[in-house]
Design brief:
The structure is a homodimer.
Chain A: H1 10-13, H2 30-50, H3 53-60, H4 64-70, H5 74-95, H6 103-120, H7 122-133, H8 137-148, H9 153-166, H10 175-191, H11 193-199, H12 206-225
Chain A binds a DNA duplex through residues 1-2, 4, 31, 52-54, 62-69, 73-74.
Chain lengths: 228, 228
Amino acid sequence: MTDPSANTSPDDTDGDATPSPSFDVSEYSETEQQIFDAALAEFGRKGKDGARMQAIADSAGINKAMLHYYFRGKDQLYADVFRHTMQRFMASFGASLTEAPTFEETLRAFIEGYVSFVRDNELCVRLIVSENLAGGTLVAEHVRRMKTTEGAPPRVMVDRIQAAVEDGDIRPVDPDHTILSIVSTCIFFFAMRPTVEVLHEDAGDWDAFVTSRTEHIFELIYRGLAPR
Amino acid sequence: MTDPSANTSPDDTDGDATPSPSFDVSEYSETEQQIFDAALAEFGRKGKDGARMQAIADSAGINKAMLHYYFRGKDQLYADVFRHTMQRFMASFGASLTEAPTFEETLRAFIEGYVSFVRDNELCVRLIVSENLAGGTLVAEHVRRMKTTEGAPPRVMVDRIQAAVEDGDIRPVDPDHTILSIVSTCIFFFAMRPTVEVLHEDAGDWDAFVTSRTEHIFELIYRGLAPR
DNA sequence: GACGATTTCAACCAGGTGGTTAAACCGTCC
DNA sequence: GGACGGTTTAACCACCTGGTTGAAATCGTC
């Protein structure tokens, strides 16, 4: 009997972190994809500990035993979902990095692309933040491998900022801190959505808030980086 | 038999959200305080679902049954811990709001105070973010009550920013968005600590990183708010 | 020191959890 | 048809979890 859970390997073999924005895990069968989606939803909403295998099975419209047939168990399933989510996340990071004539446009495109990705993939964000909060044993390896990869998105962004500094487009700043600040402002309010929604509950719907927030972030960061 | 779990009420009766920086829940007995600390540690590290009552009991050096004797059960205990954590958090928010002659100094004091509080109370932050991620049913009521309170820290901060706008110290900005951005940059890197530590693992120890980050945040925000 | 109230404990329980198993199903190739 | 591989299912299990119990130890007080 060929072990179907061997489908975890194909993605591991590749050393490239191609920032292709596509995600749908191609090697996955229809059933596996359904399981995967259900698992992402459950893990993203409840966290690893709060998630119930039964709920995932129900949501995927299959028997609970199938989960252990396709994925070895909860840990495996979670690790798989997390790995793909991480990849998707990194891909979006790269996809938001467009080639633009000015740094201003580059920054604007990045922020807008990043926020819209986060808006459309809230579950991914929740999963990643959740894992970080819970200790992040899985985070370490993925981030480390991504960091050392040559053409990886974060490195590209660092280079972009450094180039802007040398060109005098922005004042001298630490690129790492700067990226962290941008990402913070773009992600944090999604992670804290319940709080934010209460604070701004009289200020229109969520989508409108996200839009105004995008503009605010760009203005703040861009001016904050302006040369003296 | 007087129900000891009635100790949940004394804090509820007060309508004030006095931003006193003190925290030690005075009405708590020594045992209760031990339980409380152990619970905060466990909940903060593992989240509500991941936390184990047995672990809390062990950590507090007491029998598991005591938890149900002093607090009704897991839900009660969690709610209590969360409520006090929320209060402590809001208190720190107010404590960081000092009276300073210039807006620049006010902002610097706030950022430094806030970051140092977060550094010294990482568990509190993790608990709050964790609760937000997990749906935040508890968040809503606390935030709502805090929002409507007149002298509450966030409102004070809003007024402070608005005054600075009117005085021409900073450009016209949405105070809510601005506060959210400040808080994001000050908190997010703590919530994502595992990731951040890997990315900057060759850049000295954590404390040094926090220090440099504080300076970076201030520079970025202050310049980002500068009048045209 | 007796007595009642409070605090502590070991043992126990019901329910839910992840995980397993053995049999049934189903298309396909001989 | 029937053997065979991958797939699906219902029933089942061991274990862990939060929660309970009733009795024993401890404390305050008269």
